[in-house]
Amino acid sequence: MKKILLIISMFMVFMIGYGKEKALDVNMEAGAKIPSFQLRDFSGKYTNSRKIFNNGKPTLLVLAAEWCPYCRSELPDVQKFYEENKDNVNVVVVFTRRKTNLSETKKYAEESKFTFPVYYDADDSIMKGFKANSIPYNIKIENSKIQEILGGTMQYDAIKSAFGIE
Predict the structure, then answer these.
(1) What InterPro entries would the database entry show (predicted)?
(2) Distance (Å) of CA 117 to CA 19, 63, 90, 121
């Protein structure tokens, strides 16, 4: 009887240990493949990152926060870039939960009249997975591979240049 309990206990430990979703961990080198992960929009709906990153268009991924003055400076330029290039370039903005909450972030995005796709990093997994220690943090992605880490605050002309748009 003890053997059966021991075997069942070991099986349960094994199942619990492997049942957890693996944390996002992105190799932040140019050319590195980004593992699939879930993006959560403001209404709680999830989208698989592959659906966006593998749709044949390059992607500008921006990690931002509504309270960040540099983000507030950059995001209107990201909006302008999105409006002019949405047929040829994906724009994905992920807002962090650090120092804020969903309702404040949602209010900011609505008041700013952003039309680019916005997502919320409710558990900080995306910020941690992309090793973003500062915001804004901009990454150029194509076919789920990092093409270039664009770094911090970018203005409109720099964003266009990064995507080869004159």
Answers:
(1) AhpC/TSA, Thioredoxin-like_sf, Thioredoxin_domain, Thioredoxin_ResA/DsbE_sf
(2) 31, 12, 9, 13
